[in-house]
Design brief:
The chain is mainly alpha-helical. The protein is built from 18 helices and six strands. A hairpin with a 2-residue loop joins β1 (12-15) and β2 (18-21). The longest helix is centred in the N-terminal third of the chain and has 30 residues, at 23-52. The two termini are 38 Å apart.
Length: 397
């Protein structure tokens, strides 16, 4: 196996008169409670800011920027194209299909509007993602670190996106549980969830890359020991990239360029992979000339992500976590265009927070008040910056 941890303990224990719930269930409840409290408090701050400035908070959360494209796809399919300049063409083919399909399913089965359905899908996915993050971290480092990791993820400066009609919660939910399946040797589940992650977002192929890397390592290990490779391992590895590849090829077929059509759509949006040249140019612009607060904040978050990845490497994290976060970081750093969106692209990279979660637990045990101050400061930054992003900044997320 590729994980650096022992087998997880059973979920129930026997005591005296019979079975009783394992404390792990209570710890999960605590983690989810902290996650919900953090996000609900953030929503309250955002709502107060919105009402004070004459906006409706649910409209801002459910119909901002990319959300409107997803709602259009859910209602009408892939039909919308905006020609802004000769080389700037915004096509809804840039948006992957799983999230609008889920919105369409909810609006078909319930009386909810499209934006309400989008929020319901996102909020539900965020809770499922929090459970997956907890399960993965608890297996690797125990329940305390798992709880801290969920809390830190909820208190990221840009975690307001988890409360919006965006796709990051959906991707993170599938990614967390796919990675957990890899660490527990459930290869069919890992491949299936990775395929679904690949249908959620363009950078969803990071999950498939993690599954394929872990599967390749496991196959090599088994063959080296002259042991048989199971059908589930081969099948899981084969399933992992299918979702992402299927949509990219479908767009290519529709555009008349099977392999390049989707990437041409992205190029016309101003997004392309240039090995970081565009990001470096924009960072230089920020350092020399300055810009709105959202841009230097994005630069700080991306720089922090690079540092955290170095710490994750130093901690010798399991291979699938390193590959998953490495691919997400590579896409964010190497892609040009929409610099202000890079923190959002990194929101699913929750393993980056593992070194911080472990440090927070050590601090809480040695100096509880210090940990309380740290969490309070993170919460204040998250709530204030989230309200600023959605209500005040007027910048695409």
């Amino acid at each position: 196996m590729t994980q650096a941890s022992t087998l997880a303990p059973p979920s129930v224990t026997r005591s005296g008169s019979g079975l009783r719930a394992h404390p792990r269930a209570a710890a999960l409840g605590t983690a989810l409670g902290l996650f919900a409290a953090a996000r609900l408090t953030g929503l309250a701050v955002l709502a107060a800011t919105a009402w004070a400035t004459g906006h409706h908070p649910l409209t801002l959360l459910g119909r901002s920027w990319d959300s409107r494209w997803y709602l259009g796809i859910a209602a009408h399919g892939y039909t919308r194209t905006l020609h802004l300049e000769p080389d700037v063409v915004f096509s809804d083919l840039a948006f992957f299909p799983l999230y609008p399909a889920l919105i369409r399913a909810v609006t078909t089965l319930t009386p909810l509007s499209g934006s309400a359905a989008g929020l319901l899908v996102s909020w539900t996915a965020a809770a499922v993602a929090a459970c997956g993050i907890y399960a993965l971290a608890a297996r690797l480092h125990g329940r305390a670190v798992a709880t801290a990791l969920v809390l830190l993820w909820a208190l990221l400066p840009h975690s307001v996106v988890l409360s919006m009609a965006y796709t990051e919660p959906v991707l993170t939910a599938f990614a967390a549980w796919s990675l957990y399946a890899v660490l527990t040797g459930r290869w069919l589940w890992a491949g299936t969830l990775a395929a679904l992650a690949g249908l959620a977002r363009p950078n969803g192929f990071a999950v498939a890359a993690a599954v394929l890397a872990a599967a390749a390592y496991e196959i090599w290990r088994l063959l080296k020991q002259h042991r048989k490779v199971s059908h589930s391992l081969w099948t899981g590895a084969a399933l992992a990239p299918l979702g992402w590849a299927a949509y990219v090829l479908w767009v290519g077929h529709r555009r008349g360029d099977l392999l390049g059509g989707y990437f041409e759509v992205q190029r016309q949006w101003g997004s392309r992979f240039d090995f970081g040249r565009g990001s470096l140019r924009f960072a230089r612009h920020l350092l020399l000339q300055g810009d709105r607060f959202v841009f230097p904040m994005a630069l700080v978050i991306v720089a922090a992500a690079v540092l955290l990845y170095a710490l994750l490497l130093a901690d010798r994290a399991p291979l699938p976590l390193l590959v998953y976060t490495g691919v997400l970081l590579l896409v964010a750093l190497g892609g040009s265009g929409f610099f202000e969106s890079k923190p959002r692209f990194l929101l699913p990279a929750f393993p980056l927070l593992l070194p911080l979660a472990r440090a927070l637990v050590r601090t809480a045990r040695a100096r509880p008040w210090h940990a309380t101050v740290v969490v309070g400061a993170l919460a204040g930054l998250s709530f204030a910056y989230g309200a600023y992003l959605v209500v005040v900044a007027n910048t695409p997320l």
